[in-house]
Amino acid sequence: MKVIRTSNYGEMSRTAGELIIEKIRSNQQLTLGLATGSTPKGVYEYLISDHWQNGTSYKNITTINLDEYIGLRNDHPNSYHIFMRKNLFDLLDIPLAETFIPDGTADDLETECLRYENLIKEKGGIDLQLLGIGQNGHIGFNEPGTPFKSRTHIVTLAESTRQANSRFFPSFREVPAQAITMGISTIFESREILLLASGAAKAEAVARLINGDSDENFPASALKLHRNVTIIADEAALKLV
Ligand code: GLP
After folding, report:
1. Residue 64: helix, strand or coil by DSSP?
2. Percent helix, strand and coil across the chain, each rounded to 5?
3. CATH 2.30.42.10, domain 2-234, yes or no
4. What is the pTM of this model?
5. 140 C-alpha to ligand 1 centroid (Å)
6. Cα(42) to centroid of ligand 1, in Å?
7. How many CB atoms lie within 10 A of CB 149?
8. Nearest C-alpha neighbor of 141 from the set 34, 68, 46, 203
9. 113 near 152, Cβ under 8 Å?
């Protein structure tokens, strides 16, 4: 794993944004794996301002998101569908039909997981996957203990994840208990992975990722076995490394 140390959130976002833009410029049909949460928001802002200022086009790009809550309609303000539209898709020239997010309202959720796996295959796999990291080491919504061989699946969220994400909801009670997420193996098959981390709250997770062993109790550590991973993190997130 390559580690790029940045001074703060803004520099982390700019560094990641530039890397993504470079990939898009060299492959206009890139399949980009995307993440939600606070961490990638600055990267998305960077991509949007570059699109408007420099004309980088997303007309032929495909995006595939990591995860979605179960039980929130796709137009629910806290769904990842709306998060992605508000923070990225509606502000670029990307056709919405080429943006994919698991459907957490599907009647048959197991079938939805299989459909998502097949979709990723049909799109030729993910060229570049953007990831955040949970304080407990989760990637996507793969909580500690998830087998490294897992594919897209249904998860019950850890109490700590629901607590952490309750900041986006009117109350903790309203945070869904379950989600659909790409599995660790699904994520691992991406040709390249970019993991972002910012702030002191992520310092322990980042230190364990960089210095610890590969262990299913710490999902992000699967990435230690991957050949093309870059961590871009700020000083605060790297303070224990
Ligand atoms: C969420 C998401 C993850 C994200 C992580 C960290 O639960 N499912 O994809 O990386 O938690 O979120 P944040 O960037 O807001 O700290």
Report:
1. strand
2. 40, 20, 40
3. no
4. 0.97
5. 7
6. 14
7. 11
8. 68
9. yes
